[in-house]
Amino acid sequence: MTSALLLDVEGTTTPIDFVANVLFPFARQHVKGFVARHREAAPVRDDLALLRNDVLDEAARGEKPPVWADDEASVEAVVHWLMDRDRKSTGLKSLQGRIWEEGYRSGELRAVVFDDVPPALQRWSRLDRTCAIYSSGSVLAQKLLFSNTQAGDLTPLLRAHFDTTIGPKKEAESYRRIARELEAAPAEVLFLSDVRAEVDAAATAGMKTRLCVRPGNAPADPGPHAVIRSFSELTD
Fold first, then answer.
1. For 207-230, what is the mean pLDDT?
2. Residue 167, domain extent
3. The domain that contains 34 carries what CATH number?
C-alpha cells in the first residue's frame, strides 16, 4: 500500500522551462540589488556566510571560484558562478528562495505546475495520502512556488517539504531519513522524479518509484523504473 507520495519539483511537478528560463534568470538579475537592500537582515547574513564557506570549499577542491570580497558585486559573481555550475549549495538555494519571495510578493513572478498536478494532489488528499516535496530548492522556495501557481495555493495539499539539508538527492540515506520523518516504511512511499539517479537512490532505500517523462525532459534510460507521463496514470 502507498501511504505517502514524495514528489520532485523541476521536471516532475513543474516544467523545466519555468525553472530554467524564469526563476533562475530572475535570481541572477536581482541578486545584487537584493543583497544591497537586505544584507543586514540576519537570515541574509546567514546565507552570505554559507556562500563564503562554499567559495572556500570550492577552492579547496581545486576549483577557481570568484574571490570573496564581502560586497554586492562579489556576491553576485559567486552566485552566478555557482549557478553556472548547477551547484546545490544550501547558501545559494536559500538566497535564491529569498529573492523569489520578493518577486512573488511584487507580482513579478507566478509559478507554473503541470495541469495534471492539482487534481492529483486533490485526489490523494481525499484518499488521506501524505503528499510531500523533496527538491534541491530550499523549503522556502518550494512553499512559494506551490502557494503561487496558476491553479492557486496548493500548499494545503502538501504535508511536508524537504530540501538538501536532509541530504543529497542522489544518496539512498536521504530517502531513508525522509521516510522516518513521514513516519512511513520506505516501501509505503512512492517517489516521483525525472532524474534517473534520484529514483535509483530512492529504490535503493526501499521506496517505490516512477520516472517522470515530461515535455522538455532529456531522454533517459528508465532502467528498472516504470515511466509515467502524467500523474493521472497513477492508480489509487
1. 89
2. 4-15+111-233
3. 1.10.720.60
